[in-house]
Design brief:
single chain, 197 residues, mainly beta, seven-stranded antiparallel β-sheet, six-stranded antiparallel β-sheet, 13 strands
Length: 197
């Protein structure tokens, strides 16, 4: 019995010793919390109702909202457009880049299983001089991200990676640009868009 009591006392002493030597909170670098500036899950059936702008640069087909098992997303396909080429943009609402620092963008995208050529593409652009009205007067900068390819399994979302926007000032719009051909009918979906810092 005394042996058991001794072991218990020894165990309690060891635990107390370990706890008293733990690093203090002040010595630990706590990562800053992520504050969301903008979030879009595309659950509203009207993309323009939440401030998105749809622009057809070539052809007339536009981005639309889709839903599967109550999960909304933005989608585009040239299927049944009757036009040899469609180039269309989905432009975000404006984001004030001067109210905070360290802004980053994240989203997910997938291909619908019919993307078989580089003639079908999904690209990301940003602009700080787009006025929300006149597309052709704006300067658009292409931004790299991780995207679905012809070899990506259809309808499997790919994380974009964390895209640094912190060098931009003023009012920023980002945009998803899709090029599609009616003969190849490739399509894309975008979902879970976040801008945070």
């Amino acid at each position: 019995m005394k042996t058991i009591q001794f072991k218990v006392v020894l165990l309690v002493s060891m635990i107390a010793s370990m706890l008293s030597s733990c690093t203090k909170d002040s010595d630990v670098e706590v990562p800053s919390a992520k504050t969301t500036l903008f979030a879009e899950n595309f659950d509203n059936t009207d993309l323009t109702a939440t401030g998105w702008i749809r622009y057809a640069q070539t052809g007339t087909k536009l981005w639309t909202q889709g839903s599967y098992k109550n999960n909304g997303y933005a989608k585009f396909s040239s299927y049944s457009s009757g036009q040899p080429v469609n180039v269309t943009w989905l432009i975000s609402p404006p984001i004030d880049m001067d109210a905070q620092v360290g802004e980053k963008l994240f989203f997910q995208s997938c291909q619908d299983g019919y993307v078989r050529s580089i003639d079908n593409s999904l690209e990301l652009y940003v602009s700080t001089d787009y006025d929300g009205i006149t597309f052709d007067n704006a300067s658009w900068v292409k931004i790299p991200f991780d995207y679905p390819t012809q070899n990506t399994i259809k309808y499997v979302y790919v994380n974009s990676g964390i895209i640094d926007l912190s060098t931009y000032t003023g009012t920023l719009h980002f945009a998803f640009k899709v090029k599609g051909t009616s003969s190849l009918t490739g399509g894309y979906q975008v979902d879970n868009v976040r801008v945070f810092y």
